[in-house]
Amino acid sequence: MGTLHQGRDRSRCRLSLVIRTIGSAVVANGHKPVLLTVDDDPGVSRAVARDLRRRYGQDYRVVRAESGRQALEALREMKLRGQVAAVLLADYRMPEMNGLEFLEQAMDLFPHARRALLTAYADTDAAIQAINVVDLDHYLLKPWDPPEEKLYPVVSALIELWRATGEKPVSATQVVGHRWSAHSFEVRDFLARNSVPYRWLTAEQPEGRRLLEAAGLDATSIPLVVTPDGDTLVDPSAEELAARVGLSTTPTTDFYDTVIVGGGPAGLGAAVYAASEGLRTVLVERQATGGQAGQSSRIENYLGFPDGVSGAQLTDRARRQAHKFGAEVLTARGVAAVEVRESSRVVRFTDGVEIAAHTVVLATGVAYHRLDVPGADRLTGLGLYYGSAATEAPACAGEDVYVVGGANSAGQAAMFLSRHARRVTLLVRADGLERSMSYYLIRQIRETPNVVVRPYTQVIGAAGDEHLEQLILCDFRDGRTETVPASYLFVFIGAAPCTDWLDGVVARDPKGFLLTGPDLLAGGQRPAGWPLDRDPYYLEGSVPGIFAAGDVRANSVKRVASAVGEGAMAIQLVHRYLEAS
Ligand SMILES: Cc1cc2nc3c(=O)[nH]c(=O)nc-3n(C[C@H](O)[C@H](O)[C@H](O)COP(=O)(O)OP(=O)(O)OC[C@H]3O[C@@H](n4cnc5c(N)ncnc54)[C@H](O)[C@@H]3O)c2cc1C
After folding, report:
1. In sequence order, what are the residues at sequence separation of 6 or more whose Cβ sits closer than 8 angstroms to the Cβ of residue 325?
2. How many whole angstroms separate alpha carbon 475 and alpha carbon 473?
3. How far, in Å, is the centroid of ligand 1 from the Cα of 194?
4. What is the pTM of this model?
5. Test site for ligand 1: of 557, 560, 562, 564, most ligand atoms within 8 A of the Cβ
6. Residue of minimum CA distance from atom 22 in ligand 1
């Protein structure tokens, strides 16, 4: 799974967003297609705009500029805001940049816009020559009065021509990157996992190039993120991106009844119950809500969804439910420490900001083991992915892809990828799937002709220059190795709890899982330093008021339903703790 960098060097640019007036170019907000007119004579400029507005104002935005430079600036802003230019009307004789020069440059930004030149009679020769140079659709002789006869028929014809192109405004966030760029993947994965709709363009695609040009950047400045408001971010950090696409990243206060760390099913379950029961609640998630479950293409065994539910859908509903009850949900904020300060439990974010609460619920789940073989680290995000089947699946169309792992998560990914890829090979170390995967998935895999299970197999190397090109596989039985061509490898090889940062704060088992309740009572003794005259509650850790729920908890059942259940139960125990203290 890709992790957006938190602190690497980056540049961020924000274009001037004084969109209503750029010099004297007037650009309106909204996503109606634009009719743009440019004339250096303010009187003529206003008159053309007035006439255009009168006839087309209901369906089109009329934008006017008084120089080619201003008009281009307006077009760049429009490009970044996802607006489209339908018709460009340019005066021929303008100082600095004449109408032809303007139209030529405008074509680079809006090649589908239809183009007309306003000329005086004396300039008709130049206009005729321009028909080839800038692929001019029309020229209009000044004056164009009455517009009903001379202007509108031409503009209406141009609009008809433009409509035939089918060009549409874009209201989503846009991302320009390279197919084989780990940072581009991280941005897309982050947006997808946070349910932020986005349009993906490579820097090689014409529209990708146009967006880069409109932002004044080149193909080295990727990934470029352009928000629907036209804000541009180059190679943003997760927090920066989250804040710009409308996700909350900042707590509204500094003291809560409960802080929930981790936004998987356990954390979201806890947030829904805590907020619905009137507790001042904040949930802090370092990446994207949903946790592991959010990456599941289809959860088929969660109660109440007989036809299955995607992790993304379940997460979206849970997040909305938590919001509805008033829980704050912070995204892209990692927690680095928890401290006890008298009766408060203080949570410190990775950037040093602190919030305090009466109680903390730790729901940090588990993270995938990394594939520890030569080449794997370098190729992560460049064809080798940890649990990101959903984001990359469409790019696998027609390809042979590999999935490593024998548990349900790998099985689900294989089934999901089989809808896109030519063939999916599931690499498992055991002799088959029976001991590690649910029966319903094994049956689905058997019934899917383009999913092949390769038992006794381990990946021992990954190779490729710019992206994954080959895998080296080893057969356990005879040690035979084989190098196979591969552009995609999805890794699901078990997971470890995300608790290193809690070392020395709360008790953990030898594998790092958090010990709670009865598990803390070794030989009937309460944990060292336990200050209260009662045993720890069932989901309470070795420090009073700090609870654990879900996969991160020692001896928990690693399932969505149990994680949600533990989240709810933890809140009951929070109430009990608050009542007693
Ligand atoms: C691909 C896949 C498919 C699955 N399918 C199924 C299924 O079909 N049915 C089923 O029952 N189970 C399934 N599971 C298992 C199930 O998803 C997990 O048991 C469940 O998600 C555990 O929930 P959790 O909230 O305890 O932890 P997680 O889901 O692991 O969530 C923990 C969250 O905490 C965040 N976090 C970690 N550390 C920090 C920190 N320091 N600061 C802030 N945030 C932090 C993480 O980013 C993460 O979002 C699947 C798992 C995977 C990976």
Report:
1. 272, 275, 276
2. 7
3. 14
4. 0.86
5. 560
6. 551
CA distance 199 to 156: 31
CB 365 within 8 A of CB 262: yes
Question: What residues are in contact with ligand 1 under a 6 Å CB criterion?
Answer: 261-267, 284-287, 291-293, 295-296, 299-301, 334-335, 363-366, 387, 408-409, 412, 498, 550-552, 558-561, 563
Alpha-carbon 441 to chain mean position: 28
Ligand 1 pocket test, pick from 248, 261, 296, 437 with the greatest ligand atom count within 8 Å of Cβ, gives 296
Nearest C-alpha to atom 6 of ligand 1 is from which residue? Answer: 299
286 CA to middle of ligand 1, Å?
Answer: 13
Q: Which residue carries 């984001």 as its tokens?
A: 391
Q: Which amino acid, one-letter code, is at 46?
A: R
Ligand 1 centre to CA of 292 (Å) is: 3
> How far from the centroid of its chain's Cα atoms is residue 106's Cα?
31
Q: How far apart, in whole angstroms, are the C-alpha atoms of residue 118 and residue 132?
A: 16
Question: Which three-class secondary structure state does DSSP give residue 372?
Answer: coil
Q: What is the largest CA-CA distance in the chain?
A: 103
Token pair of 392 as six digits: 């990359």
What's the average pLDDT block by block, 10 residues per block, for the chain (581 residues)? Answer: 42 32 41 95 93 96 96 97 96 92 95 92 77 83 88 96 92 94 94 93 96 95 95 95 94 98 98 98 97 90 94 95 98 97 97 97 94 95 85 89 94 94 96 93 96 97 96 95 96 92 96 97 92 97 98 95 98 97 85
Protein residue whose Cα sits closest to atom 41 of ligand 1 = 335
Neighbouring CB atoms inside 10 A of 6's CB total 15
- Contact (CB, 8 A) for 550 and 563: yes
Helices (H), 292-386: 311-324, 376-379
